[in-house]
Design goal:
The structure holds 2 protein chains of 2 kinds. Chain A is of the alpha/beta class. Chain A has helices at residues 7-11, 60-68, 94-100, 112-115, 122-128, 137-150, 156-159, 169-182, 199-216, 227-233, 251-256, 261-269, 309-313, 331-337; strands spanning 18-29, 32-44, 49-53, 75-81, 83-84, 87-88, 105-108, 187-191, 219-224, 236-241, 244-250, 318-322, 325-328. Chain A has 14 helices and 13 strands. In chain A, helix 6 (137-150) crosses helix 8 and helix 8 (169-182) runs parallel beside helix 9. In chain A, the strands form 3 sheets. Chain A has an 8-stranded mixed β-sheet with strand order 7-8-9-3-10-11-13-12, sandwiched between helices. A 3-stranded antiparallel β-sheet of chain A has the order 2-1-4, with helices on one face. A two-stranded antiparallel sheet of chain A has the order 5-6. Chain B is of the alpha/beta class. Chain B has 2 domains: 45-53 and 60-224, 3-Layer(aba) Sandwich (Rossmann fold); 226-329, no CATH class. Helix content of chain B is 29%, strand content 20%. Chain B is built from 10 helices and 12 strands. Chain B has helices at 19-25, 58-65, 92-97, 115-125, 133-143, 160-172, 190-207, 218-224, 242-247, 252-259, and strands at residues 5-15, 31-42, 47-51, 73-78, 81-82, 98-101, 178-182, 210-214, 227-232, 235-241, 310-311, 320-321. In chain B, the strands form 2 sheets. In chain B, strands 6-7-8-3-9-10-12-11 form an 8-stranded mixed β-sheet, sandwiched between helices. Chain B starts with a strand and ends in an 8-residue tail after the last strand. The chains are: A alpha/beta, B alpha/beta. At the A-B interface, helix 8, helix 9, helix 10, helix 11 and helix 12 of A face helix 7 and helix 8 of B.
């Protein structure tokens, strides 16, 4: 293994289902080019749930939308590749790419209310989404009802004829999940699917996703800023900050032995992890850097309590902490070289 | 200690269907009770947390206290004065002593005013002439930890955390005795959330303000509040000292709500009490105990008889819950 090589590419002998390789993406805005994703790499193995965490503006949703090909018009991919099942999504024709959506990959959105069409019945929408699948209309309707039953919609036979407004928020998200998984995709992208839901529903939805993932055997990219749900659902976690992926590892590595100062700070800020009651909560001082002109060197250095000279001049390369964990931080160099 | 704010048997009703529809469908009651039989006290310098899921009536209570929604029944006493009958200018002096932080930090600031004019507005509205409003605006900005130059910015030029700070500054402008904070951390990142909460507790320590925090974030409630109340379908199902409730919840709904808080630890031993189903509609409240349709301890009596409040635990019996089969203390 060459030093600095992201470990997960070497560690796994299985071919990845999806890879994001050195992705660069910019948004053209009146205030200049916002470098929203810089040198982002990620690999998703078959049947694995990968969590992408980070604060608002970290680029986690942009990453999800890039994989789905749902970017706004002012977005421009300036470098990198996204091989999915061996074929690069970025160099594929638009038509070929469209054929993958709702077939090999599907998506669940943050707000189930706007994700469903208000003027088409659930039945029609669920039949529409199977347009890549074979079978008669009747067959598709039967499959839709089965799936609604599976996600816990009571009395699906009659309720399938209803419209989105006739269901509660939790029910709507269940319908969205049913629609996304109806086609048995290889990859499901979930963009903050529980943010709009209450705590007790959030738990129900997380469990439902996990059960269905096991049944179907698909991979999931789970985008969230909620550390609790990520810890509960995901196998691996990617931590993003200001458009860069700063750390990647298994869920236990990230939550028990975080390597990057940002990951550590993020975990410390979570009031749920503070056992003793306190009136003074930890924060990360400073602000997210301006991505029109990102600072030189390490992206986190302005807020990092441990930053030193090298952080200003040199962009840290990914360093392996373990065969399945890496982080971009100069501090890890000494730690990694010492035992060797 | 006498209470600063004392709410008794508050009831707020909203019309759920038009008169015509009510007539056509022969609905017995075209209204819903958004808040029903709610009583609580807040003392000077104390923090009370209101928790519950969406639609449980938390924000309605806040809006009723501020006089933005009309209370159908019950009393709201602030510093000894009954507020429910007061309208318009008669209420104005009290409104000055109670300030509200609204849920949406950017949406609650007028997009056409600069931060400085937003901070000067309360002085103008309440006709306070003795002080220099511009100097006051600068003082407030400093107090909430924003640079004075921010006075020239417009709300769209602020980040979520900064807009929150302006919201806090506006709420503090007239030195209120009570701040009502409706979801003060909604939409904020964890690294910024701490800043806003630390600011609120610092100002509470320095100025002795009482705070009513409305949130569904249980972690915030655990760290920030002295007492908490758990709402379900517009009623309090449990009220008491925060520590006691987190230690030993007595109502099954509280138990489920507390255990539904996902922990940021993949190896956490989850002794989870999952509740099935969803919140019932306010149009069709369940009979008896309103939680019995989702409660795993429910027995025959729960569907028939409404449980009376039981006071138990705490030195002063301030831990109150409504359940026929409460969890052991």
């Amino acid at each position: 293994m060459r030093p600095g090589e992201p470990a997960q590419q070497v560690a796994s002998s299985r071919p990845s289902l999806l890879e994001v390789v050195d992705l660069d993406l910019a948004f053209q805005t009146p205030r200049g080019r916002v470098l929203a994703l810089r040198d982002v790499s990620l690999a998703v193995q078959p049947g694995e749930i990968v969590g992408v965490v980070g604060e608002s503006g970290s680029g986690k949703s942009t990453l999800a939308y890039t994989v789905m090909g749902l970017l706004a018009e002012n977005a421009e991919v300036t470098g990198g590749a996204i091989p999915f099942e061996g074929r690069d999504l970025l160099s594929m024709t638009a038509e070929k790419r469209r054929r993958l959506l709702g077939n090999r990959m599907s998506m669940i959105f943050q707000d189930p209310t706007t994700a469903l069409n208000p003027v088409r019945s659930i039945e029609k929408q669920m039949i529409d989404i199977q347009h890549h699948q074979g079978g008669s209309r009747r067959e598709k309707r039967r499959r839709a009802i089965e799936m609604l039953e599976r996600v816990g919609i009571p009395d699906p036979q009659s309720r399938i004829g209803g419209y989105a407004h006739e269901f509660s928020g939790g029910m709507r998200q269940r319908i969205c999940i049913a629609m996304a998984l109806l086609v048995k995709p290889a990859l499901l992208i979930a963009d903050e699917p529980t943010t709009a839901l209450d705590a007790t529903l959030e738990v129900q939805i997380i469990h439902l996703l996990k059960d269905l993932q096991r049944e179907i055997g698909c991979s999931i990219i789970f985008v969230s800023h909620h550390l609790g749900t990520v810890a509960e659902l995901c196998d691996r976690v990617a931590v993003m900050y200001a458009g860069e992926m700063v750390e990647y590892g298994t869920v236990r590595q990230i939550f028990h032995h975080p390597g990057h100062p940002y990951t550590k700070a993020l975990l410390e800020c979570d009031p749920g992890r503070i056992r003793t009651k306190t009136r003074v909560l930890p924060t990360i001082p400073g602000e997210v850097p301006n991505l029109v002109e990102p600072p030189s060197g390490c992206i986190f250095r302005e807020r990092c309590p441990h930053s030193f000279d090298r952080c200003v001049t040199e962009v840290p390369a990914p360093r392996d902490l373990a065969p399945t964990q890496w982080a971009r931080c100069h501090l890890l160099d000494d730690a990694a070289e010492a035992p060797a | 200690m006498s209470a600063l704010l004392s709410v008794n048997d508050l009831r707020v009703r909203f019309r759920a269907m038009s008169r015509l529809k009510a007539m056509a469908t022969r609905a017995e009651d075209p209204f819903i009770d958004a808040v029903c039989g709610v009583s609580f006290d807040i003392c000077k310098g104390e923090t009370l947390g209101l928790v519950g899921e969406s639609g449980s009536g938390k924000s309605t209570i806040a809006r009723t206290l501020m006089g933005l929604v009309y209370a159908q029944e019950g009393s709201i006493r602030f510093d000894g004065q009954e507020l429910t009958g007061l309208i318009g200018s008669a209420r104005k002096p009290y409104r000055r002593r109670m300030a509200m932080m609204f849920q949406d930090p950017v949406g609650s600031l007028s997009p056409r005013l600069t931060v400085r004019s937003l901070l000067m507005e309360p002085f103008r509205i309440h006709g306070i002439t003795g002080r220099d409003p511009a100097a006051e605006a600068d003082r407030l900005l400093k107090m909430v930890g924003l640079p004075v130059e921010f006075g020239r910015r417009y709300p769209h030029q602020l980040s979520g955390g900064q807009a929150r700070r302006v919201g806090v500054a506006r709420a503090l402008a007239l030195e209120p005795d009570l701040i009502i904070a409706d979801e003060p951390t909604a939409g904020l990142d964890v690294s910024v959330q701490g800043e806003v909460l630390n600011l609120l507790s610092r100002l509470q320590r320095e100025l002795g303000i009482a705070i009513l925090i409305i949130t569904h974030n249980l972690n915030v409630v655990r760290h920030m509040t002295d007492r908490m109340a758990i709402m379900y379908l517009g009623r309090f199902v449990e009220v008491g000292p925060t520590d006691a409730i987190f230690e030993r919840p007595r109502h099954p709904y509280t138990e489920a709500l507390l255990s539904a808080n996902p922990e940021a630890d993949p190896d956490a031993v989850l002794d989870r009490v999952e509740i099935s189903g969803e919140v019932p509609s306010l149009m069709m409240r369940p009979s008896g105990c309103e939680f019995h349709t989702r409660c795993r301890y429910a027995q025959d009596i729960c569907g028939r008889v409404f449980p009376q409040p039981t006071a138990d635990g705490g030195e002063d019996g301030s831990h109150v819950f409504k359940c026929h089969f409460p969890l052991p203390a």
